Amino acid sequence: MKNYLLDDTAVQQSRLANYCRTGVLEPIKGLTENRVGNYRRLVYNVIDDTLQTAFPLTHNLLSEEEWDETVNQFFSNHACRSTSVWKMPYEFYQYIEGSDTNLKKIYPFLTELLLFEWMEIELYMMEDMRFPEAQISGDFESSVIIFNPEFKLMKLSYPVHQKNPNEIGDEDKGEYFLLMFRDKLSGAIQFVNLSLFYVWLIERIAASQDSLNNILTEGTDLFGLDYPTLLNNSIPFLSELKTKSFILGFRK
Questions:
Q1: What residue numbers bound the domain in which 178 lies?
Q2: Residue 45: inside a domain
Q3: Using CB atoms within 10 A as the burial measure, which of 39, 66, 135, 169 is most buried?
């Protein structure tokens, strides 16, 4: 990309930008030193406010000192690549994930908490997808079920989606599964806790576009359960998803 700035102008701008990030002031032509601190304060506040808004659970979990130190380190040391402010929190998550911060020892679920909070933003902000045509009438067992395509599945090691982060301990470590989807009408993000079987069921329905009858027949060997048992477990769950509007209907 061609640079249309004079070399000296680019240097002065770079020094000002570096100061806003790090607080380390290099000589800048025409600078009023007793006012330059306002630039860093204003820019830093935008970063801090954006991250607090994106990660309210994490902000509440960390002490004020832990939060301020972490945000300052991120702002000073990480060269953000995104040109969209709303995407910056994902880079904050990546920064924490790739760092050796002691916070991950104090809060072993920290990166999962950040990712969980980011995924809600990403799903809310994602581009609209084309919704398949669906009809209301149909049968769960023999018809092809149509899902809302704007969804994500998450596997977690800690119940960051269920418990107050301040109450999560080592004893909570395990396997947790979560469905997140964007409501077609309101745009709000919905959450549904899942078992491993329900994760498999959603993935198979979405991928195969086959009837539940055929899908559950596959599952009998996989889960070591007979067809009636799998069906009896599936129908109430699918009915709930239809009530929540994750299931749009059935293939025409």
A1: 145-250
A2: yes
A3: 66
Q: Tell whether 113 is covered by a domain.
A: no
Give the H or E element holding residue 122. Answer: helix 110-125
- 149 and 90 co-located in one domain: no
pLDDT in tens, 126-175: 999 999 999 999 999 999 999 999 999 999 999 999 999 999 999 999 99
Residue 125 lies in a domain: no
| Spatial CA neighbour of 64 closest among 76, 52, 79 | 52
* Structure-token match 């470590």, residue found: 173
Q: What are the start-end ranges of the H helices in 62-109?
A: 64-77, 88-98, 103-106
Instruction: Show which of 51, 79, 94 is a domain's final residue.
Output: 94
**Mean per-residue pLDDT of the chain:** 89
Neighbouring C-alpha atoms within 13 Å toward the C-beta of 148: 24
Angle between helices 196-208 and 212-223 (to 10 degrees): 140
**3-class state of residue 94 by DSSP:** helix
How many domains does the chain divide into? 2
Residue ranges with strand state E in the chain: 145-147, 151-156, 176-182, 189-194, 247-250
pLDDT confidence band for 116 (50 / 70 / 90): very high
In a domain, 126, yes or no: no
Q: Who's near 72: CB < 8 A, 6+ residues apart?
A: 44
Pairing state of beta strands 145-147 and 151-156? unpaired
Helices 88-98 and 64-77 cross at an angle (nearest 10°) of 100
7-22 vs 64-77: helix crossing angle, rounded to 10: 160
Residue reference for tokens 């920290």: 110
- Return the H-helix or E-strand segment holding 12: helix 7-22
